[in-house]
Amino acid sequence: MTTSLNHPKEPAEVPAWEAGSHVVNHVRYFQDENTGRKIRQLTNLPKGVLLEYFRFYKLCPDGRMLIRSQHDYGNALLLDPASGDLELLPWSFYPLKMRESDGRVWFLRYPPNLGPDGRPPRPHELWHLDLPNGSPVKDADLPDFRPLRIEDITIDGAYLILREANQDLDKYPIPTVKNPNVINHYFSRPRHGSLVAYHLASAQQTLLLTTQGLCPLHVDTSPVDPGLIRYCRDMPDALGQRIWTVRIDGSDHHPIRLQEYGEMTTHEFWWADGRHIGYTYQDRRQDPNLEIHHWAEYSPATTHLGIADLAGREVYRSDPLNSYHVHLYRSNDSRFVSGEGTDGNSFVRAARFDWNSTRLDMVPLATIHTPYIPFRGQKVECNFSADSRRLIYTDRPIPSQPFQLFDVEVDLD
Questions:
Q1: What is the pLDDT, as a whole number, of residue 16?
Q2: Domain membership flag for residue 18
Q3: What is the pLDDT of residue 119?
Q4: Percent of the chain, pLDDT > 70?
Q5: From CA 277, how far away is CA 402, in angstroms rounded?
Q6: What is the DSSP letter of 377?
Q7: Long-range contacts for 288-296 (Cβ within 8 Å, ≥24 apart)?
């Protein structure tokens, strides 16, 4: 028997959690109240467990998914999308990056106590683990890089990418309301930053770039090229150049999808082949409110999927999508594109993708119940299973309960 996803009265019995254990979930099924599709609730995480699902390479060679999730015994778990079964990785490590080609995951390990200055500890060790059956291996002891912090690692495990973001987010907080004064105050904050490559074998640091009046953000090393890094700049996305790449020695620093003033590119991501970069695109060159109204999600312009090659040339732009999507993403075989809804249009959607067609019919598959926060979204990500048959996403139908993982069949016929 199915019940409406909008009205679960009590959470199902929480399974026993033990370090390193396998948890057999009693997968729950619901009928989505808006799309009529069958929804599976894949997890029943107890209170206190925090899901960190967003934009993390997570497909293991055996088809399971690595999920960053803080729980009593560690910071990661493995999910089998077919059965919903979970395996708790018991080590108190924080997953930094997964190499999906062979299942290697690099982890950061933190000291158990606060530092001598009373501040939260910085990671002091780098480890790796080869999923699904490997054991943790220590790679290096790490110095305290402050004011830099570890953002990423190259796909060969040779370099850590460090980021400096000198800014005051207490005085200039990230916006969470739809108020032009609040968002303009945030973007007016004084700031500067840098990216640095740290060679693990030699402990040598290389300054890759510095920024004045803004900070580098969304640092993401290439999934196929150990020497390539993608990042963006934290400015109003239509008032400057958003997406950039730089090589590990600081060379070949150039923009991706060169923007004219008023063109907006944002929410960039690696295409499945690692040789292209996807993003959302809006043309706001005729928008009279461009310089005071920085929200892409409330823009009057239509939204498109854009894809550029690594030289920075746009090689694909879709027709206008049927709604703004907080984030777009793709399946590992590039046959499908997913999207997350926005204020007043809260659905996860999917469409078939074809390089030879600019049409993307984003079909609503499931309702998102988590309240929408302007500029921050709904803490939702749509990620396809390894076989591209299911779309897996986070939601919180019961406000008092933790975020859970759900999925829906990618049936677009």
A1: 42
A2: no
A3: 65
A4: 88
A5: 33
A6: B
A7: 290/238, 290/239, 290/262, 291/236, 291/239, 292/180, 292/184, 293/180, 294/183, 294/184, 294/187, 294/236, 294/237, 294/238, 294/239, 295/178, 295/183, 295/374, 295/375, 296/237, 296/264, 296/266, 296/324
For residue 375, report the phi and psi dihedrals to the nearest 5 degrees. Answer: 75, -10
Chain centroid offset of residue 356 CA = 27
Rg value, the chain, Cα? 21
Residue 5: per-residue pLDDT: 36
Tell me which residue of 269, 188, 291 sits closest to 234, measured CA to CA. 188
SS3 of 300-336: CCCCEEEEEECCCCEEEECCCCCCCCCCEEECCCCCE
* Alpha-carbon gap, residue 161 to 149, rounded angstroms: 8
The Cα–Cα gap between 23 and 84 comes to 9
Which residue type occupies 221?
Answer: T
| Number of domains comprising the chain | 1
Specify if 16 maps to a domain. Answer: no
Q: In what order do the strands lie in the sheet with 204-212?
A: 149-153, 159-166, 192-199, 204-212
d(CA 389, CA 409): 6
Contacts of 65 (CB under 8 A, 6+ apart): 58, 59, 78, 79, 81, 383, 385, 392
Tell me the whole-structure pTM to 2 decimals.
Answer: 0.91
Bridge-based pairing state of the strands 149-153 and 336-342: unpaired
Among 27-31, 84-88, 126-130, 265-269, the minimum mean pLDDT is found in: 84-88
Domain containing 324 equals 97-409
Indicate the average pLDDT of the chain.
Answer: 87
227 lies in a domain?
yes
Within a domain: residue 61? no
74 vs 331, higher pLDDT: 331
φ, ψ at 42 (rounded to 5°): -85, -25
What CATH number did the domain enclosing 113 receive?
Answer: 2.130.10.10
The secondary structure of 171-212 as a DSSP string is TSPPP-SS-HHHHHHHHT---EEEEEEEETTTTEEEEEEEEE
